[in-house]
Amino acid sequence: MSENERMATNLGIRGGLDAIREILGDNGAKILFRNVGLVHIYENPPEYNWEPCMTIPEQASIYSEVENLVGLNGAHGIWRRIGYTTIGYVDKIGHLFDSFFDLAPKERFNKALELFVAGSGKGRVVVNDEELYDLDVFDCIHCKGRKTKRPMCNHYTGHIQYIADMAYGKEVYFVKEVKCKALGDDTCYVKAEKK
Ligand SMILES: [Zn+2]
């Protein structure tokens, strides 16, 4: 499937909108969505469900606009916070991970990561030495054509950090982007490492 045929779900976009409103404020969020031609999403937010909402490149334009508004340096941290908060909303309001609640931490983490990949349509899971899943975003379009000094796909690290905190509690794992195409790597690879 080409990236244009894959769709971002209402769940992902609504979680993202709510996260951006929380972090940038209502006005900031409105400006951001207006700048990328998606003000209708701001004005009529989709429900938390699995219906397709917009194309993956449209979704990526929302994240890219953060950099246009605040510059790359500021965007690194904001992307991570938006990524984290988005999955928080998807969990708490969308109840996405409720059925994993009773599982042991590792299984909870892996199941949630698997569901993230299935739901977001981004990347694939890779089993690491600890039998924990890593996220391999081989199809990342966020950093396409970019050259940066630091890994820049921080929204993924935020997403997976939330899942690690949910499964293990805070301060147990720190999630890092250990490879990024913007650094010349062959993929964007996100990994939870023991603190
Ligand atoms: Zn990337």
**Strand coverage percent:** 15-25%
**CATH homolog superfamily:** H-NOX domain
- Predict the CATH topology: H-NOX domain
Whole-angstrom Rg? 16 Å
Q: What is the SS-derived class?
A: alpha+beta
- List the uncertain runs: none
Which structural traits does this protein have?
single chain; 195 residues; alpha+beta; H-NOX domain; 4-stranded antiparallel β-sheet; two-stranded antiparallel ribbon; 5 helices; 6 strands; 15% strand; binds zinc ion
Descriptive overview:
There is one protein chain. By secondary structure, this protein is an alpha+beta fold. The chain has a single domain (7-194), classed as H-NOX domain. It is built from five helices and six strands; from the N terminus they run E-H-H-E-H-H-E-E-H-E-E. Strands 3-4-6-5 form a four-stranded antiparallel sheet, covered by helices on one side. A hairpin with an 8-residue loop joins strand 5 (173-179) and strand 6 (188-194). Helix 1 packs across helix 3. It is globular, with a radius of gyration of 16 Å. The termini are far apart. Zinc ion binds next to loops.
Indicate the topology:
Blueprint: E1 7-9, H1 10-35, H2 39-43, E2 52-55, H3 56-92, H4 105-120, E3 124-127, E4 133-137, H5 154-168, E5 173-179, E6 188-194
Antiparallel strand pairs: 1-2, 3-4, 4-6, 5-6
Helix pairs in contact: 1-3, 3-5, 4-5
The site of zinc ion has 7 residues, from loops.
Short structural summary:
It is built from 5 helices and 6 strands, in the order βααβααββαββ.
